[in-house]
Amino acid sequence: MAQSDATTSQPTASSLGAMPTGRRWNKLRAAVEGYLYLTPTLIGLTLFVFWPIVSSLNLSLQRISPFGNRFRYVGLDNYIKTLTSPDYWETVRVTLFFVLGTVPTGLILSVALAIALAYPLGRMDPVYRTLIFVPVVISSAVTGVLFKWLYHPVVGYINYGLLQLGFIQTMQEGPNWFADKTWALVAVIVATTWRQLGFNVIVALAGVQNIDESYYDAAKVDGANAWQRIRHITLPLISPTLFFLLIINVIYSFQAFGEIDVLTQGGPGRATTNMVYSIYRIAFVDARDRGLASAQAYLLALMILIMSYIQFATVNKRVHYQ
Length: 322
Description:
mainly alpha; MetI-like fold; disordered N terminus
């Protein structure tokens, strides 16, 4: 009887083979189920991200007729033509000046406003936060139309403010913002910084409010004034947030289009024609050369990757992660 019980208690060869097979089937079923959930997203990414990337690379190696009905493989000729064009390097210069004008200004203002919202204006924080965030939900086209009226040389509020402050004697003496090469890029920089400011302030405010109050209490005991607390406590502890904003703002500034298209259309001359607006005009307005435009788009993407790498290699070393 004991021998039969021992025999029946031992697993058979078929049951040993069935156990791993069952586990493999469960893993396979779970993987298939996961990919089914991902299918809608993968289809969207393939149609609107991956396929356009590959298609644009193919177009950059072609010379295309203005109507798009003839293609001729030219290899790297579009890239060589771009890199040897003085107009292209002029757009690079404008783009870099635009980035240098928008990014530091936006970050400095966002940190100052975030600190003001977190401390002196704490009771009205929800109201001010809403008012500052409003520009983010406004499209770039609406921002362009708004600032086009503000910059109007005769009825614009900016020249009227200069008149009231005594900088000019009549409205006509004020800057003609969009017709003057000296002021056109400045006007676009101000509009773009204003539109991006709300997002920067909200993110910076989240970083400031995440700082433990005990750091400030200890600094007050040691006799640190407000500026010393900001310099030695606030700024180092929100450096990860500032680094994130730096990356996002640089990428956004390299890709700015809407404000330029509405305010200046790249003018006067080419004073506000950045790399993205140049790609648009080459592809759809002037030459209608989608191959050349695709080559410039890839060069722009490469420049953004290089700038991001430089920031990670240099600025990231100064970030204080808790």
